[in-house]
Amino acid sequence: MKLKSLTPNLMVKDVNETIEFYTSILNFEVLQTVPEEGELDWGFVRKDDVLIMFQKDSSIKSEYPELKAQQQGGALTLYIKTEDLDHLFQNIKDEVQIVKEMHETFYGAHEFAIQDPNGFILTFSDTLT
Q: Any idea what the Cα angle at residue 123 is, between residues 120 and 124, rounded to 5°?
């Protein structure tokens, strides 16, 4: 068996608001939404090699009844390797909630972390292999 990719499908309260954050601040592009316009149940975005799906909490709980007791947001972090970390930080620092300022970790990476509108933590790094 060979695994080819991993694309998280994150449970969110408002897909439209989430896509607006990822496209306007982090420069992701929208690949697909359901429905195509209006109040969205699901959205799929990409920035370079990073793919993320967002699904409205009521929609994903209908699809996966096992998630009915789960709250949306905040239960995980997404670790995103990037180039030119300082440039990214300078471009978004005034538009996002910074949860960890730029720092060097004990494992030798340079990182900073932000929180998206759903409470998910996005950690950006440029040095970890």
A: 140
Q: Count CA within 13 A, CB hemisphere, residue 33.
A: 17
Strands of 2-126, DSSP E: 9-12, 29-34, 42-47, 50-56, 77-81, 97-104, 110-115, 121-125
The answer as to CATH 3.90.980.10 being correct for domain 74-129 is no
In the chain, CATH 3.10.180.10 covers 1-65, 74-129
Average pLDDT over residues 79-96: 96
- For the entire predicted model, the pTM comes to 0.92
- The CATH class given to the 1-65 domain equals alpha beta
